[in-house]
Amino acid sequence: PGTGTAMGVERTVLNLRARGIEAPSDAPVDVVTIPLGEHGPSAALRLAQSLRAAGLTVRAGIPGRSLRAQLRGAGAAGARYAAILGDAEAARGVVQLKHLAGDGEQREVAMGDAADAVAGGG
């Protein structure tokens, strides 16, 4: 014989909302990382950790998907920025930031400056 307890998903969501906790998918997304190439995924992971430490909401892209597919996914997630990291960017310690919620401008910034660039970029 065994014992246990179970709680329905609906009840869990209601309890979380009652405490002011929203599901991560409901939170606005500041940045979606887009890892490309062999070294992009590890650089994207480091960048995501840094951005989250700065208080930004970050979703991780899926390695192995095309740039175009990942940009579509970032747009569908409602992200303000896409952080594109390929082998060249990883080697130079930079990231390509594409402003998805605005004019579509893409600029290169040092990985250490990415949080400030996103926070200051509206």
CATH topology: Rossmann fold
User: Tell me, what's the shape?
Assistant: elongated
Please outline the major beta sheet: 5 strands, mixed
Helix/strand/pairing category: alpha/beta
Instruction: Provide the low-confidence segments as ranges.
Output: none
Number of strands: 5
Please tell me the CATH architecture by its name: 3-Layer(aba) Sandwich
Strand content: 15-25%
The CATH homology group name: Anticodon-binding domain
Mean pLDDT: 89
Give the CATH level 1 class: Alpha Beta
Strand order of the largest sheet: 2-1-3-4-5
In short:
This protein has 122 residues and is of the alpha/beta class. The chain has a single domain, classed as Anticodon-binding domain (Rossmann fold, 3-Layer(aba) Sandwich).
Please specify the SSE layout and strand pairing.
Blueprint: H1 9-18, E1 31-35, H2 40-53, E2 58-60, H3 67-76, E3 81-85, H4 87-92, E4 94-99, E5 106-110, H5 114-120
Parallel strand pairs: 1-2, 1-3
Antiparallel strand pairs: 3-4, 4-5
Q: Explain this structure to me?
A:
- The chain is built from five helices and five strands, in the order αβαβαβαββα.
- The protein is elongated, with a radius of gyration of 17 Å.
- The longest helix has 14 residues, at 40-53.
- The protein has helices at 9-18, 40-53, 67-76, 87-92, 114-120, and strands at residues 31-35, 58-60, 81-85, 94-99, 106-110.
- The chain has one domain (28-120): Anticodon-binding domain (Rossmann fold).
- The termini are far apart.
- A five-stranded mixed sheet has the order 2-1-3-4-5, sandwiched between helices.
- It is of the alpha/beta class and 122 residues long.
